């Protein structure tokens, strides 16, 4: 047995050495598998205190089963000796029972031992099943799990039986749970915004806004909006504000207006004429603005209404006007000031969101908490919402299972393939070996009873 295990170890080392020279691609793949299963392999190749206690239990049960075999063997020897010494017919019955018990015990010992190692170290075919067929067992286990646990029908039935929608709703309806989810969402949001680089986000936002603006013509939309504003009289309030502010400004800056007129007059005109002209211009301008402010039906207001109406129509139907608006839009978007404004907008939004996520009493967190509580209450009571949530979860789970079934089952097969055969055998034996020893004990008892029955029937028929 020892020589056989050493031969197996040497064969593993030889294969590992050959695999190590197969090329950089194979080495990379092997390294990836090794990293993936490193923790599992360490767990399989080491024995915990619980494992050691199980191994001691297996040894105790082995001694019990072996002791029972030795006991029936001793009974067989003694009854045979007693039979030769002239004992009564009872000796034959006991000897037959003991003989059959030995046969049953030896047969079951062979069967149990053949699972883990070669009986008596002899390389008998179909023995040492676990160490020699470990990889095949891993493949079979993976296929079994894939066919019986990762099928669409099984996944849907199990998730539907659980009723995740109603349970999740009842859980979210508890204020403490809603607070916890809100805090976790806030932490995740802060983490995501912290990880993102401002320059990257600004570039993406700027590019997205520019691309969207370039792809969509804005003149027709502006024309429709202006048309509705004029029809509703919304522009009149803006005109009122402008005219009122213009009147107030003229009242306060009369000298400025007259100086402007003086400055634009020819040099050969007398100064008093320039002053009279400036005063006249200022008074007429002030009168015009005052009348426009105080008269809703002022002709200038009507002219402005007609101009805006015509301009709204041109924005929607005039080709030249629409083309000029598009050129103006492109020029505005291309200016550095506009791009800087877009970039600064992201910075302001990020800062606002982070501050709101950190503040437990912020409007953002309070609204999220209230939404979660409302959602939980509705999910716990409304069967339609529960059905939708269950359907989404089932579809998501089925997609994962059907799409990544091979990857999931290969995790089983690759993990089992990475286990050391000797340690795996010992660990499996430590976990199930104690129960297997009962097979030996039962084999001894059942064999003895069967032998006694056969001997009794034979004697009866022979009589």
From TrEMBL:
Region (Disordered): 1-55
Source species, domain of life: Bacteria
Keyword Transcription belongs to the record: no
Basic and acidic residues bias (residue ranges): 1-14
Record field: compositional bias (Polar residues): 38-48
Spans through the membrane: 61-78
Alphabetized UniProt keyword annotations: Membrane, Transmembrane, Transmembrane helix
Protein name, entry field: DUF445 domain-containing protein
Species of provenance: Streptomyces marokkonensis
Phylogenetic lineage: Bacteria, Bacillati, Actinomycetota, Actinomycetes, Kitasatosporales
């Amino acid at each position: 047995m020892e020589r056989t295990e050493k031969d197996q170890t040497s064969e593993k080392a030889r294969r590992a050495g050959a695999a190590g020279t197969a090329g950089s691609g194979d080495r990379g793949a092997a390294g990836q598998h090794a990293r993936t299963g490193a923790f599992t392999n360490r767990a399989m190749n080491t024995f915990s205190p619980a494992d050691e206690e199980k191994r001691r239990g297996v040894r105790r049960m082995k001694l019990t089963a072996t002791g029972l075999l030795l006991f029936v063997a001793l009974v067989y020897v003694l009854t045979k000796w007693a039979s030769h010494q002239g004992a009564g017919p009872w000796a034959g019955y006991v000897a037959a029972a003991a003989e059959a018990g030995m046969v049953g015990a030896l047969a079951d010992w062979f069967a149990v031992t053949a699972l883990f190692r070669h009986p008596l170290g002899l390389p008998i075919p179909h023995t040492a099943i676990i160490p020699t067929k470990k990889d095949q067992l891993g493949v079979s286990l993976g296929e079994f799990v894939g066919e019986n646990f990762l099928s669409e029908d099984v996944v849907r039935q199990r998730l539907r039986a659980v009723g995740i929608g109603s349970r999740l709703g009842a859980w979210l309806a508890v204020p403490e749970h809603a607070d916890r989810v809100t805090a976790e969402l806030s932490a995740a949001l802060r983490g995501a915004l912290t990880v993102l680089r401002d320059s990257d986000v600004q570039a993406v936002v700027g590019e997205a806004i520019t691309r969207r603006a370039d792809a969509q013509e804005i003149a027709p939309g502006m024309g429709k909006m202006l048309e509705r504003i004029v029809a509703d009289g919304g522009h009149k309030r803006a005109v009122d504000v402008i005219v009122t502010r213009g009147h107030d400004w003229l009242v306060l800056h009369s000298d400025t207006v007259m100086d402007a007129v003086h400055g634009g007059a020819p040099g050969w005109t007398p100064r008093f004429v320039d002053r009279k002209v400036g005063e006249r211009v200022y008074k007429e301008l002030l009168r015009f603005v005052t009348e426009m402010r105080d008269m809703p039906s002022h002709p200038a207001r009507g002219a402005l209404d007609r101009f805006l109406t015509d301009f709204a129509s041109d924005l929607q139907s005039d080709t030249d006007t629409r083309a000029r608006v598009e050129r103006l839009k492109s020029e505005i978007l291309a200016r550095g000031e506009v791009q800087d404004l877009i970039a600064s907008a992201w910075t302001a939004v990020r800062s606002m969101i982070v501050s709101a996520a950190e503040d437990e009493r912020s409007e953002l967190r309070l609204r999220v908490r209230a939404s979660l509580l409302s959602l939980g209450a509705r999910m716990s009571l409304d069967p339609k919402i529960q059905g939708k949530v269950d359907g989404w979860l089932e579809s998501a789970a089925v997609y994962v299972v059907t799409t990544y079934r091979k990857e999931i089952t290969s995790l089983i097969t690759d993990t089992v393939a990475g286990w050391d055969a000797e340690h795996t055998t010992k660990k499996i034996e430590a976990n199930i070996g104690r129960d297997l020893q009962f097979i030996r004990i039962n084999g001894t008892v059942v064999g003895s009873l069967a032998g006694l029955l056969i001997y009794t029937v034979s004697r009866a028929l022979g009589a």
